RNA sequence: GCGGACGUGGCGGAAUGGCAGACGCGUCGGACUUAGAAUCCGAUGGGGCACCGUGCAGGUUCAAGUCCUGUCGUCCGCACCA
């Protein structure tokens, strides 16, 4: 078979018949939205990871289509982003040009893969038609109060005079010029994802996702219940701390504010001013990674001020230390050195008192003791333990108006401003008189200008493009400037699955009715690296849009599957620097797209992945040849009368139906390697039957070969279309229903049992399926092998596992 | 440091608590060939043939790769979250 020719042949036929198009008008069949995470066109070609994500998932989609679903499987490109911009800086090729060129190549390759993508629904996030609606999303979130501005630190390279993304910071230095990177505050846009923290957490219980992914999101959201406690300073200033251990509040010997805390300078006494300023400066230099390292030695400085412990009335010192994070809780903590490791280390270093207020139950208390224990030296709460102590103490604090119970989340609001060129411009105008004014919807899109100096020279690319920046205020008509920042590309990918439902709409991001019909996504397949960011952002968008009345469902992705990672042959992640990149192209050229897809499905456990190894690819090719030979033999067989149906026929028919059942189950479970193994078994069974002498039931043979082709079709689409045609089948093979097993054929007259005596295998024996447990028990005792072991002993117990095993316990 | 997943032949990998190693690669043997390639058929965990085998040590069970406890190793995620 000329693989190249038949691939082209069937791709053209599918195309001509618009066979891959989803038909929204078809109400007969149940819709099924199968979605693969769209491609990021940073490189020109598809790599093995693309094939591994898209090939097997396409086979799943085709399988569901044959099972009678109206399948929608779209594809598009997540086309904005930093790599294209960096590439442009390096080569001078404009990001738009390189991206569109890459997309064109990838489209061609994706089509050559033979996946049934509905290209009529294709989207590219960098086109005006798309990012217009990304900007619209921003405006809706703004209207709803879910987009706001605040100061936030960025990585700043003082030498390049520019903002760096985290990945451009290498060991605290600028990747380009090697100068130390500092943190600098800029006013930036945020999305208030924290408003949905509770629902993002509880919604996880309603989706069919890998448990691991759900746990990662739970940790990322990081719900914690504790208590806020207010401390009052000598000068009258008040601040709150957050703690999960209010049962230790009598052991507080000092408090610590984050260096960025607004009260940090206000509470500094003149004598401490220099030391505090120096410390704040020191803390601002430390980059995020250093700062967050738990092994970093604790540092801090005394402010010179004191505050009062609200429960003991004692005067305690106020410190600044960068082990306290301004962004979590209240940015201030009460320090209990006796019962917290960090506080213990800090107090030891700075000679602060350590007061024990918790005793270990039934043992010696060794400080720092951080577990729950018996409250002591905390009258009137002495003797209480753990949760009960916390409840009582929190209630007491609440009753005197000094705070009370509080839930906190680790989740932060989503910073969406990027000081970059290649993204969707933020649709906001800054007016001296009116402040930040959203661009009116009728003026969208705010077009990203083409002629821009994106090479770094001290200013962000859009900021120095006067044509872009200068505009008029939509409110007062006065002179105003545009926001020079672009949106994080995760904003684009937070709603693309909705746009696929209505990709050409120029009046709205999507039509409600169309989205209602298609969404939510039934099966979403993509890399586990998106467990937290993309998948959380997309869920947030869905919930926000629902609350604005644009949608009517809570979760965008009902079922989620992560494919594993194909590593280089050396077991490392494929990368140019490792020199272990395996290109799919050579294999596809030599063996064809179908063989390559089959091999990816067969050679790895789909969700595990593993090191690349091509040992088995020839075997797949051979397997296909074997199937083709069977088809050649079966093709010439017409209907016959008076056919034998003896034991051999029964065995073949059993193999046929058993494998239909197993392949269906395995495909549904994304267990592709075992599905292909079943198909090989069926192929072997057919060869075995074909090799028999004597009269054969050729019609059964033919029908079984036909089923084999249908079962294999989702995994080797072009190949099986061709085989289907050879068998004289009408229409496309994908118009045929996926075979269903005949239950009657799965009922055997007898089954092989393992016979055990005292849990040791004695023999194997065929037992009629009609036998009852009692009959089986009696029967096995007549076997000579069993009699030998049970001689002179009595049977105390007999365990029968129907169809599998008998275990006689004797003694 | 915390959390999670995983650990099975020479290799990739299978096994609702019920015959460990499906399927395939590789290897060995045979058939067909002048010969090779291709193809087909068969064998293939180890072994002293009593048994022993799923990283290691225990436990639960009639029965454990599977469940429980501990331990070692690999990978992933989070990482001063008070």
Structural class by helix and strand composition? alpha+beta
Fraction of helical residues: 25-40%
Largest sheet: 7 strands, mixed
Uncertain regions: pLDDT < 50 for 5+ in a row? Answer: none
Note the gap between the termini: 65 Å
Oligomer: single chain
Mean pLDDT: 90
Task: Tell me the Rg in angstroms.
Answer: 34 Å
Secondary structure tally, helices: 26
Q: Beta-strand level of the residues, as a percent range?
A: 15-25%
Q: How does the overall form come out from the CA principal axes?
A: globular
How many extended strands? 33
List the topology elements:
Layout: H1 3-16, E1 31-36, H2 48-66, E2 70-72, E3 76-77, H3 82-91, H4 95-113, E4 123-124, H5 128-143, E5 147-157, E6 162-164, E7 169-170, E8 173-174, E9 182-191, H6 197-202, H7 211-221, E10 224-233, E11 238-243, E12 254-257, H8 263-266, H9 273-285, H10 288-292, E13 300-308, E14 315-321, E15 332-335, H11 341-350, E16 358-359, E17 374-375, H12 386-399, E18 403-408, E19 414-415, E20 417-418, E21 428-431, E22 435-438, H13 466-469, E23 470-472, E24 479-482, E25 486-487, H14 489-492, H15 496-499, H16 512-518, E26 521-526, H17 533-547, E27 557-562, E28 565-567, H18 584-591, H19 593-603, E29 609-611, H20 617-635, H21 647-668, H22 672-690, H23 698-712, H24 717-726, E30 750-757, E31 760-768, H25 773-781, H26 784-790, E32 795-801, E33 805-810
Parallel strand pairs: 1-2, 1-26, 3-4, 12-14, 26-27, 28-29, 30-33
Antiparallel strand pairs: 5-6, 5-9, 7-8, 9-19, 10-11, 10-13, 10-18, 12-15, 13-14, 16-17, 20-25, 21-22, 21-24, 23-24, 30-31, 32-33
The structure holds one RNA strand of 82 nucleotides.
